[in-house]
């Protein structure tokens, strides 16, 4: 039942305000990630830090298709998802620096952040573990009888894990309202898709379970949004899961300590220069005369201020109190689910 | 204002590195994302990108320089119209301070109080005297506990292989599909990793799943979801969300099912902070503890036993009967030796105590009932009275739960001990199939009696 690849080239109608919002949202992620890279270089962020630069259109496009109550869960490359669903940049950056003001009070770090308020369920460090968890979140919504959907994000690397297919099977069997979003950035750490599978069209793999899917241009935020709306409509109508394989590209290494020698600099440069998602929207805004250079400069400045403020907050927030070592291991009462 | 470009840390362990090559020169304009230099870390040669735009005013550290400390200035970035001469190089004090502060060792942890309070047994009756009792198997008691909780709370549901239409591989969920329907009693495909993950997700989403494993041997396929996803999320989220759920099923050896179907996982799960671990022996405990487990806001592992399923016990006839975690039960009082066990190990401990009594040795028999939290105080209070202790379990001997308890007794009651604490466990071998070898591989009542005679010198 897999549908044919959608030729997502036709530009859907989009308002000026929406287009400006996508520009802002994508730019916030990029500048935030650049700042995170800088703070990592300064030793203020430790351990593993996986940047989302290049993939911004994926989360911004899909968030544009979501409504309040929808859930999302992803892997360890999660900063972009958190910003896109409206989490506070200060809280995210302070978690990266391991401070009290972070979303997990400094106890989770880059890979482990959550927000009940924004229905963001992590931030998971084990490749593909979030996929059945996403199906389980959708299970909970179906059980409760509401029409929320869950976005379960994972990469092309995770797409080869067995639990993904266990989740596909049960999601379709039980008609769970979950959108499996494969962010195909072409590299599982240092291994290209060509070196890890002979069936590189990941969206087609759902056909074995009866799950429809399609491939989407992930450098085009409007194409992502259009595909997201289609998938969301399918799930909300009670028709079960949907697969979106979103072709995207990560400009930086797998983590901060990855020199990325498995691809050429030309390959990266070509993507940046010819396919950059933010630049594309920028050109649309300018050529369509929806915004002037000055308007965009003002947005750039505004975003820079937000990001700089988050970095300041993340530096000034104190380290967690030593007693925090011993808290949050067990819950005393059942935390209430935000409705 | 000019910005100092600092030597970056480009790996989790990097403290200094070699500035291998500059890819820009003084006077060059750079934009965010441009590659400035190649830097050799302790792991690899990395490209170092510009974060801000501007003009390279001055290169402070020449290429080829080794041992450049992280965070020391390597170049100066000027904004439009600025001159390099007008700027003096200073170290970014705030950054340095932050780093020095980070390097300061944490204050020593609070010293353990040298004078610990004397442990007092927490054991007390679990139901009022005179309560009417009924006879039930462990199997029926577990089903009743689940059914009662499902009647009371719509968010509780049970999922697993053969739990619904087949009425349970071991008939524990018998009749539940008829009462609660397929929305709440859910047959899964044989896919432990996947359905455990779905269960964890459902718990994150506000439900209270009971995930049944046909046996805990198969939960090894799912142990990543149990430990990394269910047990750790509350901590990793700073208390925002966790997994209020139960993982249950038969654990340990059944009879003649060989090495892959006979393992006891008590020590594995008991070692994980964030999990609670229950291992009942009697039907009353199975019922009371299961109800507590379902209500508990944390992930709880309930380790049942196939051989105990069919065993009958007295169960109090009460509308709502629960047993708290972390409270041991004293099955038999005695003054000569303390026998500590849990789960099916209790059958050996109680049988040994009866036979020893015939020889005039009075054993105090304690059932831990829960391993996390565990009731240390009841054990310690008893050992301080009897001065001797033998621990009994069917699990493997290396890094067993008995080892942990023996170590605790040694550390907290050393002066009270008149003999070494002895552990009686399963043997250090995969479970054999042959009937005679299987019997030999498990702990035996004779071994428990022998251990007691050794520590009582009788």
UniProtKB/TrEMBL annotation, chain A:
InterPro entries: DH_E1 (IPR001017), PDH_E1_Alpha_Subunit (IPR050642), Pyrv_DH_E1_asu_subgrp-y (IPR017597), THDP-binding (IPR029061). The keyword Oxidoreductase applies. Its cofactor is thiamine diphosphate. It catalyses: N(6)-[(R)-lipoyl]-L-lysyl-[protein] + pyruvate + H(+) = N(6)-[(R)-S(8)-acetyldihydrolipoyl]-L-lysyl-[protein] + CO2. SUPFAM superfamilies: Thiamin diphosphate-binding fold (THDP-binding). It is an enzyme of class 1 (oxidoreductase). Keywords: Oxidoreductase, Pyruvate, Thiamine pyrophosphate. Gene3D superfamilies: 3.40.50.970. The keyword Metal-binding does not apply. Residues 25-322 form the Dehydrogenase E1 component domain. Its EC number is 1.2.4.1. NCBIfam families: PDH_E1_alph_y. The pyruvate dehydrogenase complex catalyzes the overall conversion of pyruvate to acetyl-CoA and CO(2). It contains multiple copies of three enzymatic components: pyruvate dehydrogenase (E1), dihydrolipoamide acetyltransferase (E2) and lipoamide dehydrogenase (E3). Heterodimer of an alpha and a beta chain. PANTHER family: PYRUVATE DEHYDROGENASE E1 COMPONENT SUBUNIT ALPHA, PYRUVATE DEHYDROGENASE E1 COMPONENT, ALPHA SUBUNIT BACTERIAL AND ORGANELLAR. This is Pyruvate dehydrogenase E1 component subunit alpha. It comes from Jannaschia pagri.
Automatic annotation (TrEMBL), chain B:
This is Pyruvate dehydrogenase E1 component subunit beta. Residues 103-116 have a biased composition (Low complexity). Residues 2-78 form the Lipoyl-binding domain. Its cofactor is thiamine diphosphate; (R)-lipoate. The gene is pdhAb. It comes from Jannaschia pagri. PROSITE patterns: BIOTINYL_LIPOYL (PS50968), LIPOYL (PS00189). It catalyses: N(6)-[(R)-lipoyl]-L-lysyl-[protein] + pyruvate + H(+) = N(6)-[(R)-S(8)-acetyldihydrolipoyl]-L-lysyl-[protein] + CO2. It comes from the Bacteria. Residues 103-129 are annotated as: Disordered. Keywords: Lipoyl, Oxidoreductase, Pyruvate, Thiamine pyrophosphate. InterPro entries: 2-oxoA_DH_lipoyl-BS, Biotin_lipoyl, PDHB_mito-type, Single_hybrid_motif, THDP-binding, Transketo_C/PFOR_II, Transketolase-like_Pyr-bd, Transketolase_C.
